[in-house]
Amino acid sequence: MAPKERKLDTHQCAKIVSRNKNLCIEDHRFLVRTMVNSGLGEETYCPKSIIMGEEEHPKLVDSVSEIEAVFYDTLDRIFARSKILPSQVDILVVNVSLLSAVPSLTSRIINHYNMRSDIKSFNLSGMGCSASLISVDLVQHLFKAHKKKIAIVVSTESMSSQWYSGRERSMMISNCLFRVGGCSMLLTNDSARKNQAILKLKCLVRTNLASDDEAFHCCKQSEDAQGYKAIYLSKILKTIAARALTKNLTVLLPKVLPLWEIIRYLLFKSSSKINLKTGINHFCLHPGGRAVIDEVGENLGLNEYDLEPARMTLHRFGNTSSAGLWYVLAYMEAKKRLKKGDRILMISFGAGFKSNNCIWEVMTSDLDRTNVWKDMIENYPPKMTINPYLEKLGWINDKAMDFVTPEDISKMFARC
């Protein structure tokens, strides 16, 4: 978890937006309206460089220090909890989509922990919010050729260089959704460590629609006409995500649902949805945004109980890219929802456009571990998730305020 001084509430976010001299009053209206309706709460985290006002001229050192803080905090914890030494790790996979540094990010970790020279390391970039399950899939395939091995997957994102300072609305949205976060996972195919396992990977299916131009362009890193860089999010992203998810589940579900449910669905699909709960106990959805969670929930016939972990993760931590799934899973664990033998459907989306999904089985009844939710889980779900700044910032939607200039807005926030 990031330090308190990097928390980014709506008011602080609006002050950062007010520093952007390129925006007109309509742009401010759009951004504030999007922020207060995003589903994010008041305790998400932001890179230090953006808090300090350096978002328009990002430095490599800021990006590297941001992700290294996540690397070493999460890895220190995983080594301490598992009692496994860094020298025992055989495979290391790091996924950070928006930063490809030299030396590689895996090399930085290997150097920091003095890992073995024969460690198999893989550095994945450009894979989007779905990269964590791609990393898990890579490890799964490596395990087929290498027996009794220990692997670590590190999933995070570099946001320091991605704060958008331009005026394209499809690129502004990334400022309202993406936040800092990350996690590390320990995996093994050594049967001698079976009793230490919390989850077992049952199956994983990857779907990539990159051959379709519409899907390829709906979510991508790009520059606007002024050269400002950000993640572009198309209006049709929800539609593309639904298409990718449908293709993926067509392959995945027959592996986990009982035959009788598949037959029933095929016979009556014109009048009913497939009942996922005949073979799945929990649903771990990528907390990419409120609209995506709503769309997936409606398409899969999920109720508010099923969607709560994803909604609360978005509210507390924002969209932390590939790490988001594991915050959702940690919420389920902190709420003591998971029981031995339960099956968890993990659903992720990523640029490309990709949908990578898998099934985990809970392997233990001993789930009293503390995690990132430990100091706040009793407060979730909150009684109200309405943004507290909705009323304070409502003036910005008033057409009578059209005379207000961006400079006026900047002065208002400077005095707050």
UniProtKB/TrEMBL annotation:
It is an enzyme of class 2 (transferase). GO terms for molecular function: fatty acid elongase activity. It catalyses: a very-long-chain acyl-CoA + malonyl-CoA + H(+) = a very-long-chain 3-oxoacyl-CoA + CO2 + CoA. GO terms for cellular component: membrane. Residues 279-361 form the Beta-ketoacyl-[acyl-carrier-protein] synthase III C-terminal domain. Residues 3-267 form the FAE domain. Pfam families: ACP_syn_III_C (PF08541), FAE1_CUT1_RppA (PF08392). Its EC number is 2.3.1.-. GO terms for biological process: fatty acid biosynthetic process. Keywords: Acyltransferase, Transferase. Pathway: Lipid metabolism; fatty acid biosynthesis. The keyword Transferase applies. Belongs to the thiolase-like superfamily. Chalcone/stilbene synthases family. This is 3-ketoacyl-CoA synthase. It comes from Lactuca sativa. The lineage of its organism: Eukaryota, Viridiplantae, Streptophyta, Embryophyta, Tracheophyta.
